[in-house]
UniProtKB/TrEMBL annotation:
Subcellular location(s) per record: Endoplasmic reticulum membrane
Membrane topology, record value: Multi-pass membrane protein
Descriptive protein name: Signal peptidase complex subunit 1
One cellular component (GO) term of this entry: signal peptidase complex
Broad class of the protein's primary localization: endoplasmic reticulum
Superkingdom classification of source: Eukaryota
Length: 95
């Protein structure tokens, strides 16, 4: 039962989606780190810097870790598998 529920949820991400997710994650972390550093320095409270960075990490994780549909736009096209008849024919040709 649990396996059928798990298989119903899409859990793949294409290569382009992986690249975009990585870029978004890095961008969000850097923006929150810089803004947290500036804000923490302005109020002279280092804990606010850490909280801001933590909030950025949570936001970046929620936006990039699940395989959202925006990360599955360009699926990889696999080649069609060869039939067993064509494999037998190629083996006969080698002999």
């Amino acid at each position: 039962m649990f396996e059928s529920i798990l298989n119903a949820i899409p859990h793949h991400m294409d290569f382009d989606g992986q690249r975009r997710a990585e870029r978004y994650f890095q961008l969000i972390i850097v923006v929150f780190a810089v803004s947290g550093l500036v804000w923490g320095y302005a109020v002279q409270q280092f804990s606010l810097t850490v909280y801001t960075l933590g909030a950025g990490f949570v936001l970046a994780s929620l936006l990039t870790l699940p395989p959202w549909p925006m990360y599955r736009r360009k699926p990889l096209q696999w080649q069609k598998p060869k039939t067993s008849d064509s494999g037998a024919k190629s083996a006969k040709k080698k002999k």
